[in-house]
Amino acid sequence: MSKVFTITEGLENMGALRTGGQGSVYKGRRFGPIITAVKLLPTPVHMENTEDKNFRSFQNEVEKLKKVNEEPNPNVVKILNSGITESGSFPFIEMEYIDGPDLEELLKEPHERIFTVKEVIKVADHLANALAHCHKVTVKHGDIKSNNVKFNIHTGNYVLLDFGLAAMSDEQRRTSIRHAGAIEFMAPEQSEGQMLFETDVYSYGVILYELLAGQVPFPLTDNGQKSRNEVLVGHLELAVPDILELRQRNIPESWSEAKKTHEMQVPGWLLTVIERCLEKLPQNRYADGIKLQESIVKNSIADAGNTGTAVRIADAPDTSLLQMENDRLQTLLRNYQDTAGGKADSGIVVISKPVFFVLIMGVVLMAAFLSYFLLFRNTDQKVRRSQPDRVVVPDTSGKSERKGYSWDREKERDTTDADTTGRAYYEGEARPVQLKPVPQPKPDTTAMDLDTTVHF
Question: Which residues cross the membrane (predicted)?
Fold first, then answer.
């Protein structure tokens, strides 16, 4: 590609990437391997000061665009720089270069004419995130179309590009759209020069419609004015063609019958989102990208592997499978809580089956041991009754004729009374007990006398 002019100092022009009514996009290079995309606006600036109306409008719009990158977003291209070219005095916006094909290229050969349902939902999520990010900082894109959304081959993200129309003044925007705008993606109010948040929402719906059906709702047959007017009338007055009929007509023949059947099962919530985005009146659409993203997040199916279940429900098109499953789980949770609350109020103690089994076995074992001791213990043991011994008081009357010490008489009596005593014991009689006096030794007075003598 030829290098027509120098962009600015330090930024090398590597040739045009795309040209159009809203300007041209060139590939640039800064300081070695850093590659960027440079958007040139078609209206030249004669003086770089506030007295020039075009320059003043360009500066105002660029200040708005700077808000987009205050918080990074993976689905919005980074705006790196802006200025006026050295040759031609054209305003330019320097952006991050995204390496990968855009949606328009992905719908052409050798690719299929339509996207799979899973991939359409991914695009819907990424692009809604990009719109919500821009609308939060009050930036309206105004030129959302399939070749302004690129697939980043390094990150796997779909990225919204080309904020050139957002950098134009209202007058420049109306002139550009009327003569060379992508009219297939334009909202009805854009024909009158209006650009609202709902305008971006309408173009978002056209992109999703194209990915599912294989074509836009009102295609442009040629570049003549008559064809453009027909497309404009279609956006203003005609009903949107049935998307499932077009998808059935454009479904690839190379797909298996099972895949064809699966890919025709488009979620009802996705069709409803597209239908609302393509409303003729702006007030009937989503108010902005923020509301659109909320709807996508609420209704999207996280697991695309639910084959055969994500079908369009004619009787309830607004009900998604995810919402139905969530309602079912909420009902189960409430039933469980009610059951648990009823058990707590009735005072019933709930124990697990293993614990109950152990308690039953313990009771059985205790009953068995108790029965054994009660039935098999020895009841024939005799208990011998003990009798208290009788105390016999010794005879102190002095009538005994024998003289001498008591222990001498005891020895003589032991032999004669042995039989009597033993017999009396076994007959239950008590054996008499006698108290024996203990003889006391006489004190030795001789030792005392000797001791006394020694002392004297």
Answer: 355-376
Concatenating the DSSP letter of every residue in 289-302 gives HHHHHHHHHHH--S
**Token duo for residue 401:** 């004729």
Tell me which amino acid residue 175 is: T
Orientation angle between helical segments 268-277 and 289-299, nearest 10 degrees: 170
Classified as helix, coil or strand, 197 is helix
Q: Is the separation of the CB atoms in 407 and 436 below 8 Å?
A: yes
Query: DSSP secondary-structure letter at 69?
Result: G
Phi, psi dihedrals of residue 91, rounded to the nearest 5°: -65, 145
How far apart CA 400 and CA 408 sit, in angstroms, is: 14
Task: Indicate the number of domains in the chain.
Answer: 2
What size, in residues, is the chain? Answer: 456
- Per-residue model confidence as pLDDT tens digits over 358-399: 888 888 888 888 888 888 765 544 444 545 555 555 555 554
3-class DSSP string for 122-139: HHHHHHHHHHHHHHHCCC
- Print burial letters for 226-251: b (CB count within 10 Å at least 16), e (below 16): eebebbbebbeeeebeebeebbeeeb
E-state strands within 148-296: 149-151, 158-160
Cβ-based neighbours of 129, under 8 Å, separated by 6 or more? 73, 75, 293
Tell whether 398 is covered by a domain: no
For residues 79 and 137, membership in a common domain is answered with: no
Per-residue DSSP letter, 100: S
Q: Would you state the torsion angle of the CA atoms of residues 272, 278, 283, 288, taken in this order, to the nearest 10 degrees?
A: 80
166-202, pLDDT tens digit by residue?
555 555 555 555 555 578 999 999 888 788 999 999 9
Cis check for the bond before 219: say yes or no (omega within 30 of 0). no
Residue 112 lies in a domain: yes
> Are residues 82 and 13 part of one domain?
yes
For residue 21, give its domain range.
1-97
DSSP3 helix / strand / coil % (the chain, rounded to 5): 45, 10, 45
User: CATH code at 236?
Assistant: 1.10.510.10
Q: Is residue 416 assigned to a domain?
A: no
Collapsing DSSP states into helix, strand and coil, what is residue 141? coil
| pLDDT over threshold 50, residue 263 | yes
